[in-house]
Amino acid sequence: MITDGRLGHSDVPLDDGDDDFVDTPPRWKGTTFNANLPSREDQPSPNDVVDKMRKQFFKQLTKLQTENRRMSVAIDAMKSEISSLKHDQQIEISSLKHD
């Protein structure tokens, strides 16, 4: 509904301009546009953002899996070395007992 040239704001009195005081701003605010805001065209779509994050996640996951395999191999090698040392130690102890 349009009344006295203002859409939906006819309840806000117009300034008659007959005083020397600074008028208070109206209770309603019109739509403002900020020219510095990027346009929607410059923004990546939500799907693009999700795809980018998914790729980063899988890249990090792959690095962690590779590091996990490397560390597992290193731990297995240490276990084998410890087992070999224990075996050698037992042989040494046995030979000392029998001498």
TrEMBL record:
Disordered as annotated region, ranges: 1-48
Listed Basic and acidic residues bias regions: 39-48
Name under which the protein is recorded: Uncharacterized protein
Stretches with biased composition (Acidic residues): 13-22
Entry superkingdom: Eukaryota
